[in-house]
Structure formats: C-alpha cells, structure tokens
C-alpha cells in the first residue's frame, strides 16, 4: 500500500523539486506597480497642464452661431444685396449726371446760336425798325427749345451751375461799359423801346463785343465738357437719405480732350456783312 502511494506521489514531488531548483537559478522579477498605484505628487501639476493643452477648449455659443451654415448664408446674401444696390445706385447717379451735363451743353449751344443770329441781324441791317422786325421771328436752333424764351434757358443753366461742385470761373472778366450794360436785353432778342437809329453804333458795338463771344461748344454727346459726374461712395450714401437734392456734378480738373467727331458748322456765318450806318438825315441815297 505504501509503495503504491509513493509511486503515485512521485510526479508531484519531482515537480516541486524542479520548481525549487528553478527558483534558485532564476529569481523572480520585481512586480510592476498596479494601475491604481499613486502617481508621485511632484508630477501631478505637469500631467494636469499637458491634459489642458491637449484637451479641446469649449466653443462659445456666439462662435457656434457665426460658424453655422445658416448664418454664413445670411451674411453672403446681405453682401451680395448690398453690392448690387451700390452698383445700381452708382449707375443711376452716373446716368443722372451725364444727362444733366448733356442738357447744359445743349442749352449752351442753343444760347450761342441764338446770340449768333441776333448778332447777324444787328450787323446786317441799317435801321432799328428792320432789326426789330427780324428779331420778332422765331429764333431757335434745336426744335425742342422753340417754345422756351431765351431768359428761361439762361436761368436753367444758371441753376445747373449753382449745383456744380468746385465750380471754376474765370479769374479776370472784362466788365463792359455802362452804355453796353443797358443793352443786355438785346441778348434775349428784345430791343429797348427808347433806342433809335442814332444808337446803332452802340448797338453794333454790343453785338460785336458781347454777343456770341463764348467759345462754340460741340454738340451734346461728342465728349467735350468741363464737367464730370461726382458719384463717390459718400455721394451715393447722401442720395440714399436725401434723394436727388444731392449735387452729383463737379468741375473737371483735367483738360477736356477733343471729341472724335466734330459737330457740324453753324448755319449762320460767324462774320456777317456789316451794313454802313445811315446818316442822321435819312438813309443813304443810291
């Protein structure tokens, strides 16, 4: 019985013996600290800072709203609408300014042609009665101005000049004599009632020195003008709040270039023939 027990327990004893020999030959390695082991206290602050630097900062609600797709869509729509409104206002301002400049140029041409015709009538007739008779006929260069008196056209252009920004006028203007100033209504085609044939000399001097002295202006649309549109951002903002009462034309600082196509020459000759004055006792005898 004992022999049988010893035989059965022999493997266990052999295994224990082998383990004992192995422990002596290869001592066990030291145990690693468990996961729940306490981290040294001097590294706590370092680990905390590292985690804060790596961790994503929390987003504010305002930043989230700004970065949202809906807000970006609204912002894009506002920018596009504002740009379109600015472009439309700029184009309308340019059109209004160009129309005003063209009308001024056209009225100036009309006034010049009327004065040129009055000058020709005065210099080519030898009596006040003949001058009055010819001046009573309609005098217009453009058909659309046929029903407008000359004084009305002058007031129209004066109103335009009052609204020109940085208007530049000639520094030195020769003042006519008082006798010539009394004949200012002649420029409108009206001969004063008290004028007689004896005053033909003064009347002709007025016609030569005062009438049609402005440089002829090319016809509207030929590109030669001393004015230009003033449609900057400030002007457009003022027009948005105050409407068309804002000034949109300024004097051009640069010298205007000649137009590509010159206008036709006026029908009335620039130097009409001068009829000699009649003597005081009557017309000249043939």
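Q: What amino acid sequence fits the structure above?
A:
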């Amino acid at each position: 019985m004992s022999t049988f027990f010893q035989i059965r327990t022999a493997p266990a004893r052999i295994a224990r013996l082998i383990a004992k020999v192995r422990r002596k030959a290869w001592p066990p390695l030291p145990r690693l600290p468990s996961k729940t082991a306490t981290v040294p206290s001097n590294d706590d602050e370092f680990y905390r800072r590292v985690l804060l630097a790596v961790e994503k900062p929390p987003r504010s609600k305002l930043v989230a709203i700004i970065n949202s797709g809906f807000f970006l869509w609204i912002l894009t729509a506002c920018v596009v609408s504002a740009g379109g409104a600015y472009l439309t206002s700029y184009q309308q301002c340019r059109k209004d300014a160009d129309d005003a400049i063209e009308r001024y140029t056209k009225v100036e041409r009309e006034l010049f042609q009327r004065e040129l015709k009055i000058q020709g009538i005065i210099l080519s007739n030898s009596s006040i009665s003949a001058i009055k008779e010819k001046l009573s006929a309609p005098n217009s260069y453009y058909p659309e101005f046929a029903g407008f008196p000359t004084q009305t056209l002058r007031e129209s252009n004066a109103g335009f000049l009052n609204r020109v920004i940085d208007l530049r006028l000639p520094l030195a203007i020769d003042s006519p004599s008082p006798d010539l100033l009394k004949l200012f209504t002649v420029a409108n085609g009206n001969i004063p009632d008290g004028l007689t044939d004896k005053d033909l000399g003064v009347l002709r001097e007025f016609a030569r020195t005062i009438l049609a002295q402005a440089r002829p202006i090319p016809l509207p649309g030929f590109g030669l003008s001393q004015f230009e549109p003033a449609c900057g951002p400030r002007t457009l903002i003022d027009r948005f709040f105050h409407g068309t009462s804002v000034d949109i034309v300024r004097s051009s600082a640069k010298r205007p270039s000649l137009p590509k196509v010159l206008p036709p020459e006026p029908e009335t000759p620039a130097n009409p023939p001068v009829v000699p004055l009649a003597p005081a006792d009557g017309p000249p005898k043939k």
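Q: And what stands out in the fold?
A: The radius of gyration is 51 Å.
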